[in-house]
Amino acid sequence: MAATNKNDKHDLLVNKKHNPTVAALLSIIPGLGQAYNKRFLKGAALFILFAAFVVAFTELISAGLQGLVTLGEVPREDDSRIFLSNGILSLIFTAFFLSFYILNIQDAFKDAKRIQLGWKVPNIREGFRNAWDNSFPYLLIGPGLFLLIFVVIFPLLFMVFLAFTNYNLYNAPPRNLLEWVGFENFVTLFTINEWRTTFFNVLSWTLIWTFVATTLQIGLALFLAVLVNDPRVRFKKLIRTVLILPWAVPGFVTIIIFSALFNDNFGAINLQIIEPLFGQRVPWLTDATATRVAIIMIQVWLGFPFVYALFTGVLQGISADWYEAADMDGANRWQKFRNITFPHVMFATAPLLIMQYAGNFNNFNIIYLFNQGGPAVRGQTAGGTDILISWIYGLTFTNQQFNMAAAISIILGILVAGFAFFQFRRSRSFKEEGTF
């Protein structure tokens, strides 16, 4: 027994001499810190992986970063877009390398800390089992993360970098080389009269469109959901099926049909309704105000079924005891709606309703398919019904003002992300997530 205690004290002394700082410093050369922790196989694997990365990618990353700075040197031979793409890939690979390099140092430090506290280094079989258990979730999300980086993050970074170049129709590679211009595009957007006027007109209409169209579709959906949920209404299943039908039809088909119905010359709305009643036709496609009214009505038609389905499910989940208690207290219909129905519906659906606003803010389909953002407005580079996203599309594919489109896209992304984050933070369902 005395001998055992003596050995335990000796182990504790040895463990106290194991220094985590030394392990972290040795990990500056990947694998040496793990070897210091007597995890030789893990250290060897890390050293080989990092050495292979350095040998295979150092030249590629160096050339890519250099090209990102210069964007090419010989016109008609160097394509600045390729240099920009390679530079972004180099940044991504560098970020990967630095992330794993830091994790390598942290891993050696944590293992050394555990050894210092008396942890026994596992054998090879236990090490493999522990590594598999810990890395299995990362193996599952790895392919998705890879796609996210190269399908979402890479194009997003490419767009952000374009906003700081002079890439437009008159300076397009490979005939010309791109140059870094700093914040010149953003300054142009807010100082040149044509760009400033167009931007603020389009932004104001985008905000009006988002608020009016989304609020009307939510209000109509709530009205119909409450009405159909009334116990006195019969044939509820049939009515609900009919009200869901606009959602079942593909949106682009509905928009194209409505564009024909609203046509100034042969549309049924003018010929069969407006002209017989009022003796004149409404210029639905040639007057900006009339076009805006038309697309708001179409969006309400397209958008209310989804919200109606949400509200219907929530209303059916509200306990009848609440309403019975309100009846006993002498509450009228409006009081029951204001204090029971509306709070329950908003609490359960607030995040999805916020996404309705964010979705309509970027609702390209209806703007483009109905009238291509028209009618044209004199002195503007955008049409009378263009919202920010459709204006960006026109600048990119019609006018080839890639730099200005990228700059506006950055502003658009900040607006949408800021609005969504602010509203999510304020919603009760976000605040009370995980509380019971």
UniProtKB/TrEMBL annotation:
Question: Belongs to which family?
Answer: Belongs to the binding-protein-dependent transport system permease family. MalFG subfamily.
List where the protein spans the membrane. 44-62, 82-103, 138-164, 207-229, 241-262, 293-318, 339-359, 402-422
Domain named ABC transmembrane type-1 is located at 203-423
Name the domain of life. Answer: Bacteria
The job of this chain, per UniProt, is described as:
Part of the ABC transporter complex MalEFGK involved in maltose/maltodextrin import. Probably responsible for the translocation of the substrate across the membrane.
Q: Name one GO cellular component term.
A: maltose transport complex
UniProt name for this protein: Maltose/maltodextrin transport system permease protein
Please state where this protein is localized.
Cell membrane
Q: Which GO terms describe its biological process?
A: maltodextrin transmembrane transport
Keywords (alphabetical) are: Cell membrane, Membrane, Sugar transport, Transmembrane, Transmembrane helix, Transport
Which CDD domains does the record associate with it? TM_PBP2
Chain segments annotated as coiled-coil in the UniProt record: none
